[in-house]
Amino acid sequence: MPEFDLIERLRSRIRERGDVPLGIGDDAALVQPPPGEQLAITTDTLNSGVHFPPETLPADLGWKTLAVNLSDLAAMGAQPRWCTLSLSLPREDAAWLSAFADGFIALADAHGIALVGGDTTRGPLSTSVTAIGSVVPGGALRRDGAQVGDQIWVTGQPGEAAAALALWQAGRLDVTQVAGEPVHERLRQRLLRPSPRVQAGLRLRGLAHACVDISDGLLADLGHVCARSGVGAELSLPALPPISAPLATAPAQLHAWQLGGGDDYELCFTAAPTRHEAIVQALGSAGVAATPIGRIVSGHGIVVRDQAGHPWQPPRQGYQHFVG
Question: pTM higher than 0.85 for the full model?
Fold first, then answer.
């Protein structure tokens, strides 16, 4: 299948939109930003064996490829608008590409983001998306706005994707099959098809002081907020939202998943305590649960405290490329 036939297969799946005067098929796309809004632009690449199990089904990979970028836009409080897609494929496979498009376009349609261009090449399996959103000037959520005294919140249940990965690594979870145990299936879906918190991010505009999405682990990503804001943080282990089931063999393993596991694509944000009820209501209207898990303090770094209030040393901080 020639490259241009691959591109045409994708182009034929895309709906026409008024804010895309020229989409797939030319040297560059033309898009029409909303009047007076700024553009938020993000890029993520997923490599086989690094960001997803090599046997991952193409529809699941299509979903996740876009989800990780939508999560970045959610963390900025940006409305998704357009995206481009680059695919590196080891061989031509029309059925694989069609299934990949099923997952990708299902999530794109759910969040109103249009695929407007990209590239296809032969090589090791890798996918990359550049996503573009829009936000009114001064309305973006950023990492550098955390203030001393803020509550620290997290959406959802961080650690579930890491638990699924641990099950897969132990040979106890087949990512290509619906799991027989409901808990395992929930975890499988959390790893393969994360739910980007786009609506939550939009509703946090004007409420949160700072925000980041959890891709590399709660401690690692909250650390970015602290570093950019020039503050420290204290987290409470008992306050962390529990994951779906007691799969860990010891509390340290559970906390390692919650604090150091990646791939959750939940939001971690800070806000004034006076905004507590407004945040609960705003996120409730988006169908997203959020939990206060600590506070922003003066200084630097993150201290995790156990039930007795003693500092607790996590076994890992989070994922880093090119380390270890």
Answer: yes
